């Protein structure tokens, strides 16, 4: 234990963290969270697999079918994927001609699902990124200037918050859904910034009273420089964690809109649209439902786990309790 100038005992910093910068300390904490690291790796792996399978833009994929061309139904469109080896009594590990089966009109469902994953990731990245930027700017301005600026911006935020996101999304999706995934994502992002704005505002209200902000004012720094060069770097933890949680909710919002018919529309494909188009076949051809539903749940969970890991890394006070670590420290 160490004694601070006031005479009270202060806990000694762990030896493994001495001499590390703040960035390396955050990285060390994040890498120490196995669930978050595995989730990040799996998320990147799913995205890269979908891109490598059917390609992206001019980049071709290794899968020989695409998500728009039809072919003759084989075995009623049943899935040909087999994951059980023959020595365990299965049919062996193979993909077959249509691993995820075929749609009612003969389109390869594997290619459609891979395209749906790509569009869902675009929605997550655009809404999470753009919504975070808008929310951060509004929250920073409101928290720094306070007064009538804060009152006006927060009342506008409150107006958007009280309107259900699904209602806003349905109105936006009805007009922008047929224009493509990028237009829909950008439009929805401008209605997804409210929570981040309130969190950033609360952080700025606290940080603007610190000594380093006063020192910057005395040194003649402009308000813009104080906001973006001095205060915002100290609030980046709240911003990053909020961005990951917004990205996780974005895929669920797009899924709900596509399921209701207000999201991404043909000829484009989304995971929610696949479920909506094949909900009547749940009892007879369940693979048309389970494959896109599995990837929706998987992507949302992976992003949430990454967000939890980032929250623990940026805020050590959120660190989970470990009985083993406590016993080792006491001994």
From TrEMBL:
Similarity comment: family membership: Belongs to the binding-protein-dependent transport system permease family.
Tell me which residues make up the ABC transmembrane type-1 domain: 117-307
Protein name as annotated: ABC transporter permease
Q: Name one GO biological process term.
A: transmembrane transport
Statement: the UniProt record of this protein carries the keyword Membrane: yes
- Which CDD domains did the record assign? TM_PBP2
Tell me the keywords, alphabetical order. Cell membrane, Membrane, Transmembrane, Transmembrane helix, Transport
GO cellular component terms listed in the entry, alphabetical order? plasma membrane
Q: Where in the cell is it found?
A: Cell membrane
Q: Write down the membrane topology.
A: Multi-pass membrane protein
Give the transmembrane region(s): 35-59, 121-145, 152-173, 179-200, 231-253, 288-310
Q: Which domain of life is it from?
A: Bacteria
